[in-house]
Amino acid sequence: MLPVLMLVLVCTGCVSQYKVVVDFSPELSSHFTEYPTIEVDIAAVTDSEADEVKQMGVEEYFAPGSGIRQQLQAQTVFFFREEIHSFVLPSRAPIWQNWKLKKPSNVLVIASLPHDPSMSVQADPRLLLVQMARSYVFARSIYVWVEPKRIVRVTRRASRGGSDTAAQQWVEIRR
C-alpha cells in the first residue's frame, strides 16, 4: 500500500498517456453518395494549442500545408469506404514521448468530415477535446465514435452475447 501511495504523490503532476480507440458508424458508408476519404487526427495538446485549433476551424486545420498539423505531430488515421475498421493508438505508442515533452492538458481528436451549414461555429462537432487527468496510476482509454456529421466520445457497453452490432456496443458520454 505504501509504494502505491508514494507513486501517487510523486506523480501528482505527471501527464497520463491514453489509449485512444476510434470507431466508425455503419451509417457513414451509406450517408455519402460520393464517399470521401476521412482523416482523423489524434494529438495531445496544450490549452493554447487547443484554442488555436478551435479558432482556425476544421477546414483550415486540414488544408494542405497546414502548419499546425505538423506542429502538433498529430497521429493521422485514414478511413475509406472499403476499409472501415477500428483504430487503436496504444498508450505506449512512441508518439506519446514527444507529446509529453510539452506537458499537454488535452487529447484532441478532429475529423475531416464535410462541413454542415447547420453546425455551430463555436462548438464544431467534428472536433473533440478530452481533458487529461494528471496521474500514471490508472490506465485510461478514450473511445471515439465517428458519425456522418460529428464525432462523439463514447464508453464501451458490455456485449450481450455475439449478436450485438457495433453501434449497440457504444453509449455516448454527455458533457
Task: Give a verbal description of the structure.
By secondary structure, this protein is an alpha+beta fold. The protein has one domain (15-172): Type VI secretion system, lipoprotein SciN (Immunoglobulin-like, Sandwich), CATH 2.60.40.4150. It has six helices and nine strands, in the order H-E-H-E-H-H-H-E-E-H-E-E-E-E-E. It has a five-stranded mixed beta sheet, with no helix packed on it. Strands 3-2-5-6 form a four-stranded antiparallel beta sheet.
Please provide a brief summary of the model.
With 175 residues, this protein is α+β, with helices and mostly antiparallel strands.
Layout of helices and strands, plus pairs?
Blueprint lengths: L1 H9 L7 E7 L2 H5 L6 E8 L1 H10 L1 H4 L5 H6 L2 E5 L7 E3 L5 H6 L5 E6 L15 E5 L8 E7 L4 E6 L13 E3 L3
Parallel strand pairs: 1-7
Antiparallel strand pairs: 1-4, 2-3, 2-5, 5-6, 7-8, 8-9
